[in-house]
Amino acid sequence: MSTSDIAPDARDTALQEKALAERLASLWATPRGILGALSTVDHKIIGRRYIVTAFIFLLLGGVLALAIRIQLARPENRFLGADIYNQVFTVHGSNMMFLFAVPVMEAFGVYLVPLMVGTRNIAFPRLNAFSYWIYLAGGITLWAALALDMGPDIGWFAYVPLSGPQFGAGKRADIWAQMITFTELSALAVAVEIVVTVFKQRAPGMSLDRIPLFVWSMLVTSFLIIMAMPAIMVASTTLILDRLVGTHFYNPAEGGDVLLWQHLFWFFGHPEVYIIFLPAVGMVSSIVTTFARRPIVGYLPLVLALFATGILAFGLWVHHMFVVGLPRVGESFFTASSMAIAVPNGIQIFCWLATLWDGRPQFRTPLLFVVAFIITFVIGGLTGVMVASVPLDTQVHDTYFVVAHFHYVLIGGAVFPLLGAVYYWYPKIVGRMMNERLGRWVVALLFVGFNLTFFPMHILGLIGMPRRVYTYGPEMHWGGLNLFVSLSAVILAVGFVLFFYDAIRSAFSGEIAPENPWGAPTLEWATSSPPPSCNFERIPVVSGSYPLWEEPHALSVATGLRINRRELLVTSISDASPQARESSPRNSIWPFLAAIASTVMLLSSIFSPWAVVWGSVPIAVTLIMWFWPKGTPEDIS
Amino acid sequence: MRSGFKPLLGAVCAFPLSGCIGWQSALSPHGAQSGSLLRLIWLFVVVCAVVWILVIVVLAVALFRRRPIGNEPPLLEPSRESRLNGIIAAATVMTVLVIGTLTLVSFVATRGLDSADENVLTLRMRGFQWWWEITYLDASRPDRIFLSPNEIHVPVGRPVRVRLSADDVIHSFWVPSLAGKKDLIPGRDNAITFTATRPGVYRGQCAEFCGLQHAHMAFLVIAETPQSFEAWRRSQIAEAASPSNDEEKRGQSVFTVKACAACHTVRGTSASGSLGPDLTHVASRRYIASGLLETTRGSLAAWIADPQTLKPGSNMPSVPLSSDELRDVSAYMASLK
Fold first, then answer.
1. Are A510 and A606 found together in one domain?
2. Within an 8 Å CB–CB cutoff, is residue B275 touching chain A?
3. Residue B250 CA, distance from chain mean position
4. In this complex, is the C-beta atom of B184 within 8 Å of any C-beta atom belonging to chain A?
5. Chain A nearest-CA residue for B110
6. Are the C-beta atoms of residues A365 and A443 closer than 8 Å to each other?
7. pLDDT, tens digit, 9 for 90 and up, residues A458-514
8. Which of A158, A227, B110, B281 has its CA 20 to 30 A from that of A165?
9. Which residues does chain B have within 8 Å of residue A399's beta carbon, measured at their own beta carbons?
10. How do the pLDDT tens digits run along chain B, 337 residues long?
11. Hey, is the C-beta of B59 within 8 angstroms of any chain A C-beta?
């Protein structure tokens, strides 16, 4: 059926199910070929690209981690020299934070949020496409720099003056700062899309108290991004200005202040941890609900805990600066706030435990990851309480104790739920199941390998080993524990390799997944696996928090959307009552070209400030083409 | 001068020269501050361990307890939900109490770390890439001021206040066996106080990443009896020992004529550079190059011959010397007790 056969205002009520599916498929389709791939705005394709790219960066970052462990396995090892080691640990940290952890969480949001709220595409889909290309460019920049031996060597928090013009020679620190600009730009774009999608595109009937917890967590995360990322963009931009055009923001000799950098960085850097952790919390809530076979206990406390964590996250950045010599009163305040954040996190743990207690746990791989998560994350949270104490922190700050602590929080607290989420949503995304037996091996290897690798680091820190040292002398007696840690890291690595093997193999030979393989309650399971390009042929209408449990046989649907253009439903913020039909943008090559133009400008500006001037011309051209008015009315109530 | 030095050497040699377990460890405190910090660490560890075990027990029971048969998502009974919510609320109240207590304990411990003693010994410490310059101050007697790079001597039992500053990048003072850490920040002045309670050799290391050789930026704190400390102080205030044989004499002239004197000072000679460590008593210190090598004539020669292999990126350049000159200058260095 071609477009010409359809009246301009034809509605979906005019077609039978099969004809409607075909019509919508051709309307929302991504054309074949490279041009189609570069111009798609389908949130599922972009989300999938994000996820795959982020996991490739995880793999690369893991290789660097193993290089670090080889270097530290023995005293005075010569596997990596000081210069290479400093690049390796900086790129490992920057890569894991900026190119893996934050993007992969956002990627799951990009893929899942529109499905979970029952809409057809994410808000601002062209911005979404742009954000992916910018992210990819930033990632390639960092890794190309490392390959060319000009990788940043200043640590992932790039303290001035070490990263400043006087001590950071060459272009290494500029590469780092510009990589920040790329990834923060893409993060901000995705955050805005998710906020608008959640606020305005929820299925009719999905009032605030029926939003799935994963969607809540992505919403809070997006607000954290919107409020935290500007601080780091200001920081990285002023650093580049200091380095390239001779400003003195961070030069004490000219009235600048080196601590200003630390305040700006950690005002972003601490919320960053929760930007990574909160989506993981949402994943855990989803998995616990499905596999405990029971609605979550304490929905309201869980949502409030997300908000409390999000707000407190902005009040404790100074606990990264307890040894810089701040006034006592300030330190006491930040001790109290850092301790206080344990309370909302405790509430979440209690709610999950209560749900598991009262439910009927089914021990499938995603739930096993949640169990591994609870055991390890609670350790990370408790060591977090320790480092929140100023006097205690003066002993463990910048030692391997802290290295152990944040890996417990980030791997135990975020990567375990993330891998559980991969096993959980893989059938929806790929259309095939991952292997349950391999999955159990993956959980076991990662859990054992992780704890054997990182627990001894607490002790290493207490017996005096500072972080970021490329070697140590035999007289320090750290050799035995370090060798143990390095050998344990092999177990961890085997676990990850097995995970990648399972994920790749299952894409080709996994069991075909039905619509709802786990019997889960939320809307993403109400469509086929993988979902059609329009997500839902008819927009679902929900009347409870667990629509597929409450109406297991057939969901109510909303009709009346046009079928000669991409259209989705806009609903009100609080009770999600329908307000308008909104056209959703078509595919476009311009976001890709705009990303190329931005990349050229940002990279050239490292070498000449004038690039900002001439580089903005192509950006302006691509943006004008991107936003070229279509000449048709947009919203129709 | 030599004779006053011997008892000191004896006292120092009573401790193993290199690498005792615990010379750089928060777990083996030898100072007032590190002692109270270790008690705090243990308190937190015990409380946290109890909390963790409780969570794990509840998790295990929640997962494995016996349940009535059935497989459908259960219908929710309001009374049951409110009971579960009550349990969550109770656990939350417990959390608040534990967290509140730990916060108060932490505040109290912070106060205890300040020592307002009249009899405090004040030092000035400046961090450089990658070594430490320690200045022993004496407000009333400027002629008693001296520099002691990478090695601090303190009398046991007397509080020591170290004023910290940096001129290049941020460094961090950390001697875990004696106290916690404090950063040295360009443009700011910090200070840390510690009191060694037992004689011994304690190692400190830069804890804030400061560039290429961050790993090799260590120093020693040697706590000794007040008598030994005063003897050491007198010996350090004195000018450098004069060369006692021809080899050392030739070494001294190499040192003052070649590039060495441009960066290093040896008081009592014409060498008065200030970019590198003061070498007036270099051989009296246990390590050279900020904890990299134990001080021997051989290690001095190796360091002078090729610093960039031993500590790549160090600001010490390789100065072209003939093998005779190298032998002479290392003999001279080794004589600067």
1. no
2. no
3. 36
4. no
5. A391
6. yes
7. 999 999 999 999 999 999 999 999 999 999 999 999 999 999 999 999 999 999 999
8. A227
9. 207
10. 344 444 443 344 344 444 566 799 999 999 999 999 999 999 999 999 999 999 999 999 999 998 876 655 556 778 888 899 999 999 999 999 999 999 999 998 887 776 667 789 999 999 999 999 999 998 888 889 999 999 999 999 999 999 999 989 999 999 999 999 999 999 999 999 999 999 999 999 999 999 999 999 999 999 999 999 999 999 999 999 999 999 999 999 999 999 999 999 999 999 999 999 999 999 999 999 999 999 999 999 999 999 999 999 999 999 999 999 999 999 999 999 8
11. yes
Residue A11 lies in a domain: no
Q: pTM to 2 decimals?
A: 0.94
The 8-class DSSP code of residue B136 comes to E
Sign of the torsion formed by the C-alpha atoms of A92, A98, A102 and A106: negative
DSSP string of A89-135? HHHHHHIIIIIIIHHHHHHHHHHHHHHHTT-SS-SSHHHHHHHHHHH
Interface of B with A in 76-95 (CB under 8 A): 76, 80-81, 84-85, 87-88, 91-92, 95
CA distance A173 to A151: 8
Instruction: Name residues 184-203 of chain A within 8 A of B (Cβ).
Output: none
- Contact criterion met (CB < 8 Å) for A361 and B62: yes
Distance, in angstroms, between B144 CA and closest chain A CA?
A: 30
A594 in the same domain as A458:
no
Residues from chain B that touch A395, judged by Cβ atoms under 8 A, are: 26, 34, 37, 41, 176, 180-181
**Which 8-state DSSP code applies to residue B239?**
P
**Is the same domain home to A152 and A262?**
yes
Find out whether A521 and B72 touch, Cβ atoms under 8 Å.
no
Q: Give the CATH number of the domain where residue A461 resides.
A: 1.20.210.10
Interface of A with B in 47-86 (CB under 8 A): 81-83, 86
On whether both A50 and A108 belong to a single domain, the answer is: yes
Question: Cβ separation of A343 and B19 shorter than 8 Å?
Answer: no
Residue B205 DSSP SS3: strand
Q: Which residue from B minimizes the CA distance to A259?
A: B185
Q: B56 and A391 in contact by Cβ < 8 A?
A: no
Q: Are residues A290 and A183 in the same domain?
A: yes
**What's CA B26's distance to the chain center, in Å?**
12
> Residues A249-272: what's their mean pLDDT?
94
Domain shared by A479 and A345, yes or no: yes
How far is the C-alpha of B197 from the C-alpha of A321, rounded, in Å? 29
Q: Is B88–A389 a contact, with Cβ atoms under 8 angstroms apart?
A: no
Q: Per the domain annotation, does A217 fall within a domain?
A: yes
Domains and CATH numbers, chain B: 1-56+83-238 (2.60.40.420), 246-335 (2.60.40.420)
By Cβ distance, the residue of A335, A346, A371 closest to B95 is: A346
- Let me know if residue A33 belongs to a domain: no
A506 is a domain residue: yes
β partners of residue B133: B126
Domain span at residue A174 reads: 41-583
Residue of B nearest to A546 (CA): B73
CA distances A217 to A112, A280, A299, A307, A414, Å, are 12, 8, 12, 9, 13
Q: Which B residues, 277 through 306, put their C-beta within 8 Å of a C-beta on chain A?
A: 291
| B214 DSSP assignment | G
Q: Smallest Cβ distance to A476: which of B24, B80, B312?
A: B24
The sign one gets for the Cα dihedral B239, B244, B246, B247 is negative
| A392 with B106: Cβ contact below 8 A | yes
Select from B183, B203, B214 the Cβ nearest to the Cβ of A324: B183
Interchain contact B75–A (C-beta under 8 A)? no
Instruction: Assess whether A576 and A611 both reside in one domain.
Output: no
> Are B183 and A257 an interchain contact pair (Cβ–Cβ within 8 Å)?
no
